[in-house]
Write a structure and sequence with these properties.
By secondary structure, this protein is α/β, with parallel strands linked by helices. The protein has 18 helices and 14 strands. The strands form 3 sheets. It has a 6-stranded mixed beta sheet, sandwiched between helices. Strands 9-6-7-8-14 form a 5-stranded parallel beta sheet, sandwiched between helices. Strands 2-1-3 form a 3-stranded antiparallel beta sheet. Helix 3 (51-63) crosses helix 4, helix 6 (143-152) packs parallel to helix 7 and helix 15 packs across helix 16. The structure holds pyridoxal-5'-phosphate.
């Protein structure tokens, strides 16, 4: 499989190189040159497969030529064996023809484990083969950091540095990162905000001299391998609910557009998905595009669903590429305009094309809490605020009552007790594997909000705690 850039100028790469690449050299994102397509008969033949075996069939074409079938099978079996539910991604019915796909049974209790557990193993496999070591740098305001650290903690060839804003993440979220101990794991609390952390990651990618030749790898959602891993659970859910013989609709709590873009790809690979609902919080740039063709940058509004607090959606570029007939130069021009003006809209017929599949809703904090309370009263289920936004959007935007509606359950409610309590619901207990989280030893270094200081730290510690 070959991968091309959404901006049309960077060279095509194979899977292995895309895995180790961040942005393409022209500033674009990598996408498959040709998407695999499965027949209805082939998809139907996968019914009842264990999750890791389904994952092998769905993802095999994407890694072809880089990873052998036997190696890929073993990696996938190991990846999903650590999930706390034996179904890996179980469906829970909330109402007539309405289900939550529970994607929070991985080690850090959010859907990001599906991709990052796999990413860490793929990196280690490829680096072992090449005899190379890499450094990962990432910034987090919550879920990504812990999922990335959990995914990479066993990697022999990776040192991971995750920055979070000092005293500005919840205690559960901080402890999920800082209590994972290992000489290749480096938690940094920056005396600044999340944007400061992200700027330092960006600046480090732009000027890598301090790494003395060691490669720097990205683990944010622009990494193609993360999108790829998320395609699988759309197939998994549909197969449980009578697909591919009938169509399924999905509602997806959305921030950077990675998770829902995977659903869009599943449909283009042959899965009959009749509707995809973009569910956002008050940070609603995607809702403004879907409802009125205006992708205009706004300020950041902190919310009770912080994992969806974004100003721009990095993976939206991948959809724009398809909407423009995969013309990379047209996409580059559009995004140059956006960079200059903070505004973007597309030609009417392209927007209409997108709206055949996508609907959207923006849900504020008040409606989020009301939905948590509504679902609790009706079913006894406690939703996390992100999933609650997905439920609200599913109920308000649904096109056909006869089509099964699946809401992606992106996080466990225990991670977001503030919203749950505001809804008047008692927050649940930490699951067994995290029950002693608040007693565990933490390891974290507080550093000044200063690029030089951070880069010196990385270069002094980047080889399992020794200098690069
Ligand atoms: C990351 C995250 C999202 C948003 O996913 P995107 O792929 O960025 O759209 C939604 N909910 C939770 C709990 C998350 O951690």
């Amino acid at each position: 499989m070959r991968y091309i850039s959404t901006r049309g100028k960077a060279p095509a790469l194979n899977f292995e190189d895309v895995l180790l690449a961040g942005l393409a050299s022209d500033g674009g994102l990598y996408v498959p040159e040709n998407l695999p397509r499965f027949s209805v008969e082939e998809i139907a033949s996968w019914a009842g497969l264990p999750y890791h075996e389904l994952a092998f069939r769905v993802m095999r074409p994407f890694v072809a030529g880089s990873i052998s079938d036997a190696d890929f099978k073993a990696i996938l079996k190991d990846t999903y064996a650590g999930f706390a539910h034996s179904a890996v991604a179980p469906l829970k019915q909330l109402d007539a023809n309405e289900w939550v796909l529970e994607l929070f049974h991985g080690p850090t209790l959010a859907f990001k484990d599906f991709a990052l557990q796999l990413l860490g193993r793929l990196l280690d496999h490829v680096l072992q083969k090449r005899g190379e070591r890499v450094v990962i740098m990432g910034a987090t305001s919550g879920d990504t950091g812990s999922a990335a650290i959990e995914g990479c903690k066993a990697c022999d060839n990776v040192d991971i540095f995750i920055m979070h804003p000092h005293n500005r993440v919840s205690a559960v979220q901080r402890r999920q990162m800082t209590t994972i101990l290992g000489d290749n794991i480096h938690n940094i609390a920056i005396e600044g905000n999340f944007d400061d952390c992200q700027e330092m990651v960006k600046a480090s990618f732009a000027d890598q001299g301090f790494l003395k030749g060691t490669r720097l790898v990205a683990v944010n959602s622009i990494n193609w391998a993360r999108i790829m891993a998320q395609i699988v659970y759309y197939f998994h859910a549909a197969l449980q609910l009578g697909g591919p013989a009938r169509s399924i609709a999905f509602s997806v709590p959305t921030g950077n557009f990675g998770d829902i873009f995977a659903g869009y790809l599943a449909r283009n690979m042959g899965l009959p998905i009749s509707q995809l609902i973009v569910a956002t919080n008050r940070n609603d740039i995607l809702h403004r595009f879907m409802s009125g063709n205006r992708y205009d940058k706004d300020t950041l509004h902190p919310s009770l669903s912080p994992s969806m607090d974004i100003m721009v959606s990095s993976n939206f570029e991948r959809l724009l590429f398809d909407l423009h007939g995969r013309n990379g130069l047209a996409v580059a021009e559009l995004l140059d305009g956006f960079k200059a003006s903070g505004k973007l809209s597309v030609e009417e017929d392209r927007w209409t094309e997108a709206r055949k599949l996508f609907d959207s809703l923006a849900v504020d904090d008040e409606a989020t809490c009301a939905t948590i309370a509504e679902v609790y009263k009706a079913t006894g289920e406690v939703l996390d605020p992100h999933t609650a936004i997905g439920v609200r959007a599913a109920r308000d935007c649904r096109r056909h009552l006869a089509t099964p509606m699946v809401i992606l359950g992106t996080a466990h409610p225990v991670k977001f007790p503030e919203a749950v309590e505001k809804a008047g619901v008692t927050a649940p207990q930490l699951p067994a594997h995290l029950a002693d989280l608040h007693e565990r030893e933490e390891r974290c270094t507080v550093l000044a909000n200063d690029l030089k200081v951070v880069q010196q730290f990385v270069s002094a510690q980047g080889n399992r705690g020794k200098p690069l």
